[in-house]
Known about the structure:
Chain A is of the alpha/beta class. Helix content of chain A is about 30%, strand content about 30%.
Amino acid sequence: MEVWFTEKQTENLSLSCQVSEVLVNKVTSFQEIGIFETPSFGRMLVLDGYIQTTEMDEYLYHEMIAHVPMNTHPDPRYVLVIGGGDGGTVREVLKHPSVEKVTMVEIDREVVEACREYLPVTSQALGNPNVKVEFEDGFQFLNRHPGQFDIVIVDSTEPVGPAAELFGREFYELAYKALAPGGILVAQTESPFYNRDLIVSSHKYLKEFFPVVEMYLAPVPSYPGGLWSFTLASRQNQPTAEEVLQKAKQPDKCKYYSPEVHRGAFILPPFVQEIISQKEE
Amino acid sequence: MEVWFTEKQTENLSLSCQVSEVLVNKVTSFQEIGIFETPSFGRMLVLDGYIQTTEMDEYLYHEMIAHVPMNTHPDPRYVLVIGGGDGGTVREVLKHPSVEKVTMVEIDREVVEACREYLPVTSQALGNPNVKVEFEDGFQFLNRHPGQFDIVIVDSTEPVGPAAELFGREFYELAYKALAPGGILVAQTESPFYNRDLIVSSHKYLKEFFPVVEMYLAPVPSYPGGLWSFTLASRQNQPTAEEVLQKAKQPDKCKYYSPEVHRGAFILPPFVQEIISQKEE
Lengths: 281, 281
């Protein structure tokens, strides 16, 4: 018999895909975890009913959340990833030879364990000797580590459940303080079609602390609306400065990121510019 | 009771949205037509089970299929739209003051009649005195009108059913011949995630006739994968030439298109460049 998984993207809209094998389907202290084998997307990680990453399209999200800040910073050595339990962001960060240590802080140990067993494409990076995985709340971890990181990447789930606090003013203040001089924060900030309020508030809060706040876009087919936003906040470097783009290299085996794509991702259409300009109202 | 429409995007993947009212649901000589009122997308036109256009996101597709070629041509006066029965492409073309006449050739009169009744946001443009609507096969129409158009826009359905021939070598040859010197053809060429073979063959055929063939991308949430490709073939002008971009204007009330977005849409990520380079194998 056919088995299907359905993601309720909104009350009135859903995406369904056939499931050839249910590899994980359990409840942890923090959330529900599913890992499914699917004909459409390959293996797929689902948390609390929302698709997080799929073998078919994970490269788009992971390349763009990692290489844009890594190539904007002149010499990123110490990198913190908050969330990102599947390991895909860490894998991309490790492609930069300047990196000395990557710390991943994931609240849910069982997500990492499930991904290490069933999603090797992303999670194999977590076995790298320069990677330290901490199972802790990202908020508390930041509070204990001021001034230490060149790059902080917030690779969170939706702003409901365990990740809700990762989009608030206090969190962004802590992230600012956790950065070394010249440090850069990047956060995934959901869909410009469906999450306008979150984009507006994230921008407003980040602008209180950072002199440079810029949004960029990338397509992610398995996410609602298919177009995703990332917000980069920098203590110094502009992500689209000519010297940044000239120096940017295309890391090994990239299927979406290139220095030209980096430049193009910051070109925002009028409807997105309008969302961002609301922060000043 | 809740009523839902489901689009089977592939055998193993489907998108479903709640339907608050079925406005049209009929079979014509060419295809099945549905127009539904939905909470997610507003009114939605569906042909043979595939979503064609929705009030929520039609601007993305229509602005990008129209303004990129219109702004690439130095003085577009005579414009032909093949397909496009909802009228959205014609609406965008009419925003350019150089236009003297727009001819829309749609094979299915009942699509236009249904859209004129239930989708005024796109179809009201069809009442403009400079617009001529012809109900005919696009292939045959091109054959009878050599050398007449500055711009030909192929705003077709999927490459199955009535539109299958609109992606073939013979069709592109006729389209080339229907263009005046300096003329430009644009075709929607489906998803770079799901329709690689079609993109490869379209490029190969167009390259036989046109000196300039370039692909560009735009997000369309209601289409499979959420990222759409368009292929522009030009008898003369390069769509990303500096003089084209300097002269390009942002037409009235654009929510997605701008001259900067025009430039950025031609920046192709490595995985798309790889698809296109297959034409030379």
